[in-house]
């Protein structure tokens, strides 16, 4: 019996509402701009009503961007792997390798060499994942978890070996951290930054909010952040505008059909997973060389998993992924910088969002969703009116709650690659 007859083709992706043939309808540019404008007006209104001036300040946006970059890079790594059909839950471990090797090379030489070492460390993790899943057919989830455990063990061992003796110990190293590395260059756009700061100080409705947001994007901006933005844009053009990207994505949709058309599926899967590891490693190097300038044990804090959540929120596309990472970074920066009072102001914004959702679902005649959204909205409003702040425990959990909420609201419109996570064997297309 032939291989074609015995093999089981990847199952078709489940149909979702919103378009012909189960396809989701993509938002047009005018609609996206309208949504962004509505979000800015809502933020400005909440700031004006609650007096939470830090909600749209330049410092808040700058901190949010810094927190979003490692998550976005991890998510971008996941996108590369999953578009080629490989689930990469080992992003957390690849980020850990990036933090360690980035800091190890950064304090001894130059921080940019540290960035390169972090990328290489992540790529080694990606290569191991590719060997296990592509060549040997190991379950993708099992391989990813194994890499996370292995990366933690390896870095813990080498930290005790390299950072706790000799010159490293004399410069501040310990079994759980590295000596500090030099700063990576940050840039501020002269003139524009000060002008935007002056406008922000007036606290004008919407105008000062836009000035604060723009000011955060042009003040003390790390060059690695600029590189991360370019990588998001570059990923879109490589994967969606080139023949290489078309072949790579075909491996994640139907590798059997891709092989029958002459595509070397193994090669493209290997490239995608190694690139995935390199991007996660860059995210880890950002944490150890830009955010803190040292390696700390447990530094990634689950950001690899959060990056996967951002990728799912973005529907396996770079633009949506960037928005998901930005949302988490914004919520995380808010709880770190401002605490309970500003997070309390977000309750009013959440109430407005739930009302809009209820109205939209009523237009679609989805009455169960309308009822659920309305009940939650009333509860949030009562919480806001009856309190002046939120508990410390909830403040620290804010970014995770926001991530879960957004994922639950966007889950109905998701479409993963059809062959994502499925085992492939060469020759099945013959």
Topology (SSEs and partners):
Elements (H helix, E strand, L loop, with lengths): L2 H4 L22 H22 L7 H26 L7 H18 L2 H25 L4 H23 L3 H5 L15 E2 L4 H10 L5 H12 L2 E2 H19 L1 H11 L1 H6 L4 H27 L11 H11 L4 H20 L2 H24 L3 H20 L5 H19 L20
Antiparallel strand pairs: 1-2
Helix pairs in contact: 2-16, 3-9, 3-10, 3-13, 3-14, 3-15, 4-5, 4-6, 4-13, 4-14, 5-6, 5-13, 8-9, 10-11, 14-15, 14-18, 15-18, 16-17
Describe the structure in your own words.
This protein has 430 residues and is mainly alpha-helical. 70% of the residues lie in helices and 1% in strands. It has helices at residues 3-6, 29-50, 58-83, 91-108, 111-135, 140-162, 166-170, 192-201, 207-218, 223-241, 243-253, 255-260, 265-291, 303-313, 318-337, 340-363, 367-386, 392-410; strands spanning 186-187, 221-222. The chain has a two-stranded antiparallel sheet with strand order 1-2. Helix 3 (58-83) crosses helix 9 (207-218). The protein is globular. Residues 1-22 have low confidence and may be disordered.
């Amino acid at each position: 019996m032939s291989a074609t007859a015995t093999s089981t083709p990847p199952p078709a992706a489940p149909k979702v509402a919103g378009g012909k043939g189960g396809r989701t309808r993509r938002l047009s540019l005018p609609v996206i701009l309208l949504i962004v404008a509505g979000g800015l007006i809502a933020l400005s209104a909440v700031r004006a009503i609650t007096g939470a001036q830090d909600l749209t300040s330049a410092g808040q946006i700058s901190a949010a961007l810094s927190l979003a970059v490692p998550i976005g890079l991890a998510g971008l790594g996941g996108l590369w792997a999953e578009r080629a059909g490989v689930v990469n839950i080992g992003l957390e471990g690849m980020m850990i390798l990036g933090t360690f090797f980035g800091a190890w090379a950064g304090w001894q030489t130059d921080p940019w060499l540290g960035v390169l070492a972090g990328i290489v460390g992540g790529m080694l993790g990606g290569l191991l994942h590719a060997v296990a899943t592509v060549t040997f057919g190991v379950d993708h989830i099992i391989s990813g978890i194994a890499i996370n455990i292995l990366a933690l063990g390896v870095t813990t061992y080498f930290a005790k070996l390299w950072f706790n003796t000799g010159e490293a110990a004399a410069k501040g190293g310990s079994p759980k951290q590295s000596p500090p590395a030099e700063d990576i260059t940050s840039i501020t756009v002269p003139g524009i930054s000060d002008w935007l700061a002056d406008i922000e100080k007036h606290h004008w409705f919407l105008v000062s909010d836009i000035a604060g947001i723009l000011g955060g994007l042009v003040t003390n901006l790390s060059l690695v952040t600029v590189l991360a933005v370019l990588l998001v844009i570059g990923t879109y053009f490589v994967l969606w505008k080139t023949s290489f990207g078309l072949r790579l994505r075909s491996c994640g949709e139907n590798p059997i059909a891709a092989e029958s058309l002459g595509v070397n599926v193994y090669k493209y899967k290997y490239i995608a997973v190694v690139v995935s590891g390199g991007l996660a490693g860059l995210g880890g190097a950002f944490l150890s060389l830009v955010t803190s300038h040292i390696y700390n044990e447990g530094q990634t804090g689950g950001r690899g998993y959060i990056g996967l959540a951002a990728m799912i929120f973005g529907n396996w596309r770079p633009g949506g992924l960037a928005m998901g990472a930005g949302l988490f970074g914004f919520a995380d920066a808010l709880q770190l910088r401002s605490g309970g009072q500003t997070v309390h102001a977000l309750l009013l914004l959440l109430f407005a969002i739930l009302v809009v959702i209820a109205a939209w679902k009523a237009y679609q005649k989805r009455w169960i969703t309308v009822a659920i959204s309305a009940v939650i909205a009333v509860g949030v409003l009562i919480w806001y009116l009856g309190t002046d702040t939120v508990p410390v425990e909830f403040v620290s959990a804010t970014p995770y709650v926001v991530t879960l909420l957004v994922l639950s609201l966007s889950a109905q419109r998701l479409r993963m690659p059809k062959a994502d996570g499925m085992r492939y064997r060469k020759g099945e297309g013959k």
